[in-house]
Design a protein that fits this description.
By secondary structure, the protein is α/β, with parallel strands linked by helices. The radius of gyration is 20 Å and the shape is globular. The chain contains eleven helices and ten strands. Helix 3 packs parallel to helix 6 and helix 5 packs across helix 6. Strand 1 and strand 2 form a beta hairpin. It has a six-stranded mixed β-sheet, with helices on both faces. Strands 2-1-4-5 form a four-stranded antiparallel β-sheet, with helices on one face. It has one domain: P-loop containing nucleotide triphosphate hydrolases (Rossmann fold), CATH 3.40.50.300.
């Protein structure tokens, strides 16, 4: 289980994330929504260790992650995909994914044994990388350098890297941002597939409410850095505070619509 307790970060006089306490259970997909500037990506950065908390802590399976670097948190079981791609642009798709597979596995490639055992191990890493690449429908482009790919294909490769790390917690920050209508379904289908593994915890920052409604088991809403709503999707989306803070509809309008429906 992933948990944050009173997680807070201040930048000068600005409180970007304000005392957020939340627990995320395996087997659930939680969508984190809110208006621009609400603190969603900053909250992700605190969890994954990209920025240090002013106060509060992050726990994974009861153990604190305080003081751990982003790479150490990855090894502990946190997997993070970013709004902007974070890849090795001059390496091929296959080389990028194979490096991610290699980072999670022990073997001759770590121990410097004889050339035959190293080559055999290299083959196993390559086969696993190819399986992941096939899952994101990139087999026909696996030998292309990442820099030569479209933005949508680069997003697919980043998801492939995340899958190759085999984390306990998947963190997706607007995974379909910048994708065409033809490209986005591949990523969404991968997330649907990941949801079937009840050992995994999935966090999703997403602005597209149709995606949120379909995929989320739970929604939490951040506004001005604070947690303002938490619950089942239908209940949270219909709440006045979410209509006002996220959808731009005033609480008075929501109340008037509700009263009109009763008349």
């Amino acid at each position: 289980m992933l948990e944050t307790k009173n997680l807070t970060v201040r930048f000068g006089g600005h409180v970007a994330v304000n005392g957020v306490s939340c627990a995320f259970q395996p087997g659930t997909l939680t969508a984190i929504v809110g208006p621009n500037g609400a603190g969603k990506t900053t909250y992700f950065n605190l969890i994954s260790g990209q920025i240090a908390a002013t106060s509060g802590e992050v726990f994974l399976n009861g153990a604190t992650l305080a003081g751990m670097s982003p790479s150490a948190r990855t090894r502990a079981g946190l997997g993070r995909a970013f709004q902007l791609t974070n890849l090795f642009p001059n390496l091929s798709v296959l080389e990028n994914v194979r490096l991610a597979v290699q980072a999670t596995r022990s073997g001759p490639h770590w121990r410097g044994l004889n050339l035959w055992s190293i080559w055999s191990d290299h083959g196993a890493l390559t086969r696993r990388a190819e399986e992941v690449i096939d899952a994101v429908s990139m087999t026909d482009k696996q030998h292309r350098p990442v820099a030569a790919l479209s933005h949508g294909d680069q997003r697919k490769v980043e998801v492939a890297l995340l899958m190759a790390l085999e984390p306990e917690v998947f963190m997706f920050d607007e995974p379909t941002a910048g994708m065409s209508l033809d490209e986005a379904p591949v990523i969404l289908n991968l997330i649907r597939k990941l949801k079937t593994d009840k050992r995994k915890t999935i966090l999703l920052v997403e602005h597209k409410m149709d995606v949120v409604r379909e995929l989320a088991d739970r929604i939490i809403v951040l506004h001005n850095g604070a947690l303002v709503a938490d619950g089942e999707p239908a209940t949270v989306i219909a709440s006045p505070i979410v209509q006002e803070a996220y959808l731009g509809v005033s609480a008075a309008s929501v109340q008037a619509q509700a009263e009109g429906g009763k008349a």
